[in-house]
């Protein structure tokens, strides 16, 4: 399986998502083998690093503990997706800075 595309939508202060969760810097989508698309992946900034957060299942919100609609089956798979997203995020941020 290959990551064939990564889309990044940068968020700005005043964006409703950032107002709700100030850690979120962007939203990502990843296409796998040009056949399967994972979207609404949050790029978050913690005190230590940037990381990704997969979208929770909206039907689990009332259960008291979130369940996720997409869950990588291993830490290796999660790091693979995270590395691709964060690399594209860094390019997008750099391009924005260069344009200013």
Q: What would you say this structure looks like, in words?
A:
InterPro entries: SpoVG, SpoVG_sf. One of its GO terms (biological process) is sporulation resulting in formation of a cellular spore. This is Putative septation protein SpoVG. The protein is globular. The protein has 100 residues and is of the alpha+beta class. Strand 2 and strand 3 form a beta hairpin. Helix content is 30%, strand content 31%. It has one domain (3-99): Stage V sporulation protein G (Arylsulfatase, C-terminal domain, 2-Layer Sandwich), CATH 3.30.1120. A four-stranded antiparallel β-sheet has the order 1-2-3-4, with helices on one face. The model has no long low-confidence stretch (mean pLDDT 89). It has two helices and four strands.
How do you describe this structure in short?
This protein is an alpha+beta fold and 100 residues long. The chain has 2 helices and 4 strands.
Task: Give me some keywords for this one.
100 residues, alpha+beta, Arylsulfatase, C-terminal domain, four-stranded antiparallel sheet, 2 helices, 31% strand
Task: Please specify the SSE layout and strand pairing.
Elements: E1 3-10, H1 16-20, E2 24-32, E3 36-45, E4 50-53, H2 75-99
Antiparallel strand pairs: 1-2, 2-3, 3-4
Number of self-contained structural domains: 1
Helix content: 25-40%
Give the second-level CATH assignment, the architecture.
Answer: 2-Layer Sandwich
Strand portion: 25-35%
Query: What is the strand arrangement across the widest sheet?
Result: 1-2-3-4
CATH topology: Arylsulfatase, C-terminal domain
List the secondary-structure elements in sequence, H or E: EHEEEH
């Amino acid at each position: 399986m290959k990551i064939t595309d990564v889309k990044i939508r940068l968020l700005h202060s005043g964006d409703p998502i950032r107002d709700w969760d100030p850690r979120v810097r962007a939203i990502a989508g990843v296409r796998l083998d040009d056949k399967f698309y994972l979207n609404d992946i949050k790029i978050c900034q913690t005190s230590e690093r940037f990381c990704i957060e997969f979208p929770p299942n909206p039907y689990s919100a009332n259960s008291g503990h979130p369940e996720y609609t997409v869950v990588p089956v291993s830490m290796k798979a999660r790091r693979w997706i995270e590395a691709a997203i964060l690399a594209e995020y860094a390019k997008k941020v750099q391009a924005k800075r260069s344009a200013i």
